[in-house]
Design brief:
alpha+beta, Rossmann fold, five-stranded antiparallel beta sheet, 15 helices, EC 2.1.1.320, mitochondrion, NDUFAF7
């Protein structure tokens, strides 16, 4: 009897649910349009009564399904897509998120995506690459950096063991010139453990070659195989991040044109306040810029940066670039120097104040659109040296920050003029002399070289005032050269 009552209650409930006049009709709706018409699905429902086979069959019920709002996807095209793998990857991220991505995330994917990042699988430096850096211009640059490192080592009390770290070493040209120039100073080179912070396997191989490295086998199986640069008999190792470099030794860090490649967030002043610029996919499937409708996580770094700026400085700008990774890296450097001793040298193009809108793309030595064919051009932005100073001073009272000064002032104080004259006397051909003069001008000059008599499109442009140098050192060592 109890079972019969339960089955009857179930039947009554189904009748109420599926009755044609019920307000619980199934209606599926979507914001997308569809040409599919409304249809009726007829169905019958019956309940089997195990203990009362004489009960009359249940009446049929109908379900009304409104299909008018269902989304009908377009017919799939099996034709080849013109998008690169990186473009597909970026669009996939945006589609998965259901909205735009930050400029910083776009920049990071474009430059260091493991499969298609600009820096990962190619040699982008030098005359045949997309841009030329100071070490590629002249051997004098790496030699002067070696003079600075050796001077700091002297101020540190000539420790027997030192970590010499280069962030983003490119092809290894700077470090090769540094070690070659310092090879006569055995006490210095014998103290060095060189650490190259590089994430690109392609560039690691180039660095290995330019440093003329060999792998030394040890008869002791408990001792790991060492890689040695034959330029100065110095051990060399590679790491993906600065944090992987062993701590505990005094450390000299070189960061030349490294901070400019760190991803930046861009903010624009709007009627509702500061909004972050984002990258989305437009209707024509191209990338475009949009403004965030609400505050984003990086807004916290914008607020910190604005606190460091004067009111009159903020009033002059309608856009601000903020680089959280530069702030975090600076604090990592400052903490390492504070605990282990040593110093860091940062040379890059930038400003000693707020950076407004500097993000740029360079392909084959020419400026191109930032969103054009991502992964085929270098992206970089001006370095905010004031932000580096504040970040270092905020995290440790044991470090001091010096500069920035212009690259021309920095190299001139270290003696590049005397080195130039010595090399000029050794030139045996007009071509060698012209090459040396061109390199020298690019390092310390300002604007176009007046001595140039070659093709106008190849006129050397001086980087002497566009690039700035800053040092972060442990206070125990005093003021480093040439910032006294």
């Amino acid at each position: 009897m109890l079972r019969r009552l339960l089955l009857q209650a179930s039947t009554d409930r189904r009748r109420r649910l599926f009755a044609p006049h019920s307000s619980s009709l199934f209606r599926l709706r979507s914001s997308s349009s569809s040409s599919t018409s409304h249809s009726q699905i007829e169905t019958s429902t019956s309940v089997e009564h195990l203990e009362d086979s004489n009960q009359s069959p249940q009446p049929s019920s109908s379900i009304s399904v409104d299909r008018s709002g269902l989304y009908n996807p377009p017919e799939h095209s099996h034709g080849p897509s013109s998008d690169s793998e990186l473009v597909k990857h970026l669009k996939g991220i945006i589609k998965f998120r259901g909205g735009p991505i930050s400029v910083a995330e776009y920049m990071e994917e474009v430059l260091t995506n493991p499969k298609a990042g600009f820096y990962i699988n190619r040699d982008v430096f030098g005359a045949e690459g997309d841009f030329i850096t100071s070490p590629e211009v002249s051997q004098m640059f790496g030699e002067m950096i070696g003079v600075w490192a050796m001077s700091l080592w002297e101020q540190m009390g000539r420790p027997n063991r030192v970590n010499l770290v280069e962030l983003g070493p490119g092809r290894g040209t700077l470090m090769a010139d540094l070690l070659r120039g310092a090879s006569k100073f055995k006490n210095f080179t014998e103290s060095l453990n060189v650490h190259m912070v590089e994430c690109s396997p392609t560039l690691q191989k180039l660095q290995y070659g330019h440093l003329k490295c060999i792998d030394e086998d040890s008869s002791d199986v408990s001792v790991e195989k060492r890689t040695i640069s034959t330029l100065s008999r110095t051990p060399v190792s590679w790491h993906a991040t600065l944090e992987q470099v062993p701590a505990g030794l005094p450390t000299i860090i070189i960061a030349h044109e490294f901070f400019d490649a760190l991803p930046v967030h861009q903010f624009q002043r709007a009627s509702r306040g500061w909004c972050e610029k984002m990258i989305d996919v437009a209707e024509d499937s191209s990338f475009n810029f949009v403004l965030s409708p609400r505050p984003m996580p990086a807004t916290l770094f914008l607020m910190k940066r604005c606190k460091w700026a004067a009111a009159e400085e903020l009033a002059k700008v309608g856009q601000i670039e903020v680089c959280p990774k530069a702030m975090e890296l600076t604090q990592t450097i400052a903490n390492r120097i504070s605990s282990d001793g040593g110093g860091a040298l940062i040379i890059d193009y930038g400003l000693n104040g707020l950076v407004s809108d500097s993000l740029q793309a360079i392909r084959k030595h020419k400026f191109v659109d930032i969103l054009d064919n991502p992964g085929t051009a270098d992206l970089s932005a001006y370095v905010d040296f004031a932000s580096i100073r504040h970040s270092a001073e905020e995290v440790s009272e044991d470090v001091s920050v010096h500069g920035p000064i212009t690259q021309s002032q920095f190299l001139g104080s270290l003696g590049i003029n005397f080195r130039f004259e010595a090399l000029l006397e050794n030139c045996k051909t007009d071509e060698q002399e012209e090459s040396l003069m061109t390199g020298y001008w690019q390092l310390v000059g300002e604007g176009e070289a007046q001595f140039w008599e070659g093709p106008e499109e190849k006129t050397p442009i001086g980087m002497g005032t566009r690039y700035l140098a800053m040092a972060i050192v442990n206070k125990k060592q005093g003021i480093p050269v040439p910032f006294q």
